[in-house]
Amino acid sequence: MQNLSDNALSILLQQYLETEKNLTEKQKNILKAAVAVFSEKGFAGASTSEIAQKAGVAEGTIFRHYKTKKALLFSIVSPTIVGLGAPIVLKDFESILEKQYVDFADFLRTIIKDRFEFIKNNQAILKIIANEISFHLELQQMVKEILTTRIMTKIQLAIEYFQEQGEIVLLPYETIARLIFSTIAGYAVTRFLISPNQDWNDEQEIETMIEFLVKGLKT
Amino acid sequence: MQNLSDNALSILLQQYLETEKNLTEKQKNILKAAVAVFSEKGFAGASTSEIAQKAGVAEGTIFRHYKTKKALLFSIVSPTIVGLGAPIVLKDFESILEKQYVDFADFLRTIIKDRFEFIKNNQAILKIIANEISFHLELQQMVKEILTTRIMTKIQLAIEYFQEQGEIVLLPYETIARLIFSTIAGYAVTRFLISPNQDWNDEQEIETMIEFLVKGLKT
Amino acid sequence: MQNLSDNALSILLQQYLETEKNLTEKQKNILKAAVAVFSEKGFAGASTSEIAQKAGVAEGTIFRHYKTKKALLFSIVSPTIVGLGAPIVLKDFESILEKQYVDFADFLRTIIKDRFEFIKNNQAILKIIANEISFHLELQQMVKEILTTRIMTKIQLAIEYFQEQGEIVLLPYETIARLIFSTIAGYAVTRFLISPNQDWNDEQEIETMIEFLVKGLKT
Amino acid sequence: MQNLSDNALSILLQQYLETEKNLTEKQKNILKAAVAVFSEKGFAGASTSEIAQKAGVAEGTIFRHYKTKKALLFSIVSPTIVGLGAPIVLKDFESILEKQYVDFADFLRTIIKDRFEFIKNNQAILKIIANEISFHLELQQMVKEILTTRIMTKIQLAIEYFQEQGEIVLLPYETIARLIFSTIAGYAVTRFLISPNQDWNDEQEIETMIEFLVKGLKT
DNA sequence: GATGAATGAGTCTTCATTCAT
DNA sequence: CATGAATGAAGACTCATTCAT
After folding, report:
1. Which of A14-28, B44-58, D95-109 is predicted least confidently?
2. D48 strand F contact, CB < 7 Å
């Protein structure tokens, strides 16, 4: 078992857990408005006064809850960053892998569906993260920490397992992970950013990706 | 043969060709400084005064050459957007495909190496484009036009050719193109943004990607 | 009876009535400073920073109350433009004319004294209006509306009345009005702009003008 | 005979005489453009770059001929200010008055027609002078000097002559002059600024003004 | 003589943040 | 706890003027 308070993530996680409760109606409005404006105009292009207006609160009210504009950004972005790694924390891979008859395709289907759902439900905030990550060192560190401690370690176990089973090619696990993530991310970008209005059959596209990855990574 | 002046791109292309010459030393400094600052802080987060200072010119000088800050952005970004599609215009696919003994792996090797080189040489500007494309409709339109008229039409021909040859799977060409681009982009992002300081063996990574794609798209 | 809210002027009038109250000390200072600076340097020659300094507020404070420099100009100028026509609205001519024994000289005395008082109390703002009216179409329209709907229609009644009485010459009423206004304006300009420091006996000058006008317009 | 070089006006007069000749085509274009822009936007609201553009010359060229923007203003405005008093200098009143049978109406007809013609031919520049005179002390001084030394002294003679003849009322000559000028100016403003597009019968309007003034100033 | 690139002070305006109410 | 007036630093952009060519 992972100790959840053994690193800086515990702070984020706390925030994450507080998110749903403890929030007044005004605070929720502020967060909702901020997500909308940040995602539409970018952090630097957004003005706190526009957020206040959209949230229906006074300009000063924002600063009563969030010390600075940047703190507001992080309040929005942190839970989603934690969420990036959360499901993999919760549904422990190890237990998954212990189940019999789990092949690589099933494994891919599980993560792709799960992560696709996550992206679908967090489009706006993920867009904010993607847009701002270049400009905020702290963001980079948060994401990096989640990625390495929460995701990559688990992924590594799974990949090595399937390599041992002879199901997938013996490339470095980072490379394999990158190829998998690129495929998912490429779909997400096309699906939600480039052509959101096109008719999409997500089920089928996911199966196509699984087949592509299974074949591409076969030994 | 494509007529290069048959659509709105000709304007961009003209700009592109003028770029290298006709520029005073000061103008070059402004562009260089602007690329640096835009890429480091984002368009909205960059200040014209910082650009001026970095370029060693007076702030007014910037506005003598570029009517607005936004015009400066587009002067930087336009040639690279044109460049996105340029090589595929020049080295005509059709002629490539007429050569005998061209298989899908060779085809992939050609575009991946070419585009990888392009990305390597235009990292900063491509980063700016990626960061700003959400916020500037004109940018979206420019990129879309290049992508559809210059790239996708050519790619389609190639993909259909290899499908006829029975080399690759009979998926819609957009799907195949997306899987290829995702793989390249995923590498570029990891290579240049996430871990630029790591030791990379580009040759080998490219071969890995080619093998992955060839296997993944096999019939 | 005139309905005061029967046209676009009602908005101006509202502004006018709000003017005196509802203003913080700082706003009053801003207006006072702006009147001084606009009147001394002209609108285009005035800088908001000078106004702010003279008003003892931060420059940003001006823009919290007035969206733009031009809006500040109009806030100053609108009530006075309304005031141009106001007294004639209030003291209804018709009722004046119904009184017996009102001759043309009395009529002139009434308007000249009233308007002279108005000019005396609004010198700075009237100077601003005179200086800026060429450059702002909206100003021209506002003044034109007040002049035609509030003043000329009333004046016309009076002039026609005195013409019927055989007291004044049968020229078009616009001509007669112009000759009257020119005489008043000519005095005001000399009195307040050209030689403000000279010793003036306003009572006597007004009687001179009345005699001049009565004789000049006699049948 | 007046000695033309006995005061500061000689400088202006020299400028005035140089005006017609000694001017390159470019200089004439600059002056023409400057008159247009100053009159349309006011001195402070006009930009030298717009003037240069309208004149078809480089920005620097203006400053080769006129040290500063203000010097350009004065180059435009000075000859017309001199012209304000010029005709009265040339056609000497004294000689006019010596002719027999000259009555006050004829006198008025002469100056009104002359000055009306002058105003008609110098509308744009006179508008500039009127708009700028509040903001430039030197302008005020120039106009004042012309008015007092060139005009008022002559007018005084004429007025006193007609007073001696018993033709006009025994008011101070300044008052009489003011009433005359107000009447002319009031017409000019209405005629050229307020309703320039209306159909005007100048001959008739002038006769109306003469009759008005003759009657108004009768003993 | 004419040009136009370069300047840097100055313009109006916006913005994140504070604080008295 | 929320407000919104006030701030002043900083923003993009303009302008009159200079000067090397």
Report:
1. A14-28
2. yes
Chain D neighbors of C42, CB-CB under 8 A: 42, 44, 134-135
Distances (CA, A) of A107 to A110, A155, A159: 5, 10, 10
- A108: Cβ contacts below 8 Å, ≥ 6 apart: A180, A209, A210, A213, A214
For tokens 């942190």, what's the residue? A78
Candidates B22, B32, B8, B133; CA nearest to B82 is B8
Q: What is the pLDDT of residue A91?
A: 60
Instruction: Label residue C157 exposed, middle or buried (CB < 10 Å: 0-12, 13-18, 19+).
Output: middle
10-residue mean pLDDT series, chain C (219 residues): 42 52 81 96 96 95 94 95 75 62 86 92 96 95 91 88 92 96 97 95 96 95
Strand partners, D168: D218
DSSP B24: -
User: Comparing A154-158, A187-191, C69-73, D137-141, which segment has the lowest mean pLDDT?
Assistant: A154-158
Handedness of CA A63, A66, A70, A73 (dihedral sign): negative
The model's pLDDT over B201-211, given as tens digits with 9 standing for 90+, comes to 999 999 999 99
Q: Does B185 touch chain A (CB under 8 A)?
A: yes
Residue A131 has pLDDT above 90, yes or no: yes
| Contact (CB, 8 A) for C190 and D152 | no
Would you list the DSSP string of D139-156?
Answer: HHHHHHHIIIIIIIHHHH
Is pLDDT of B167 > 60? yes
SS3 C218: strand
Cα–Cα distance measured from residue A170 to residue B219, given in angstroms and rounded to the nearest whole number: 23
Token pair 């340097």: residue: C41
Is nucleic acid strand E under 7 Å from A48's C-beta?
yes
What class has domain A9-216?
mainly alpha
Q: Contact at 8 Å (CB) between D191 and D120? A: no
Residues 32-61, chain C: which have Cβ within 8 Å of D? 40-42, 44-45
Residue A6 has pLDDT above 50, yes or no: no
How far out from the chain centre does Cα B219 lie? Answer: 30
Residues 22-51 of C with CB within 7 A of strand F: 24-27
pLDDT, position B189 = 97
Read off the pLDDT of residues D139-176 as tens digits, 9 standing for 90 and up. 999 999 998 888 888 889 889 989 999 999 999 999 99
Cβ of A134 and B193 within 8 Å?
Answer: yes
Q: Has domain B9-217 been given CATH number 3.20.20.150? A: no
What span, in angstroms and rounded, lies between the C-alpha atoms of B202 and B191? 9
Instruction: Please state whether at least 3 CB pairs lie below 8 Å between chains C and A.
Output: no
Q: What is the pLDDT of residue B7?
A: 44
**Close Cβ partners of D68 (under 8 Å, ≥ 6 residues apart):** none
Please give the C-alpha separations between residue B204 and each of B194, C69, D182, D212, in angstroms, as whole numbers: 19, 64, 94, 103
Angle at A138 between CA A134 and CA A139, to 5 degrees: 55
Q: Which residue is nearest to nucleotide F19 (CA to C1')?
A: D60
Distance, in angstroms, between A14 CA and closest chain B CA?
27
Dmax over CA atoms of chain C, in Å, equals 62
CA distance B192 to B187: 8
C-beta atoms of D186 and C190 within 8 A? no
Q: For chain A, say whether B172 makes contact (Cβ under 8 Å).
A: no
Comparing B54 with A12, which gets the higher pLDDT?
B54
Averaged pLDDT, A4-14: 48
Q: Which residue of A has its CA nearest to B209?
A: A179
For strand E, which residues in window 66-85 of chain C come within 7 Å by CB?
67-70
pLDDT of residue A27: 85
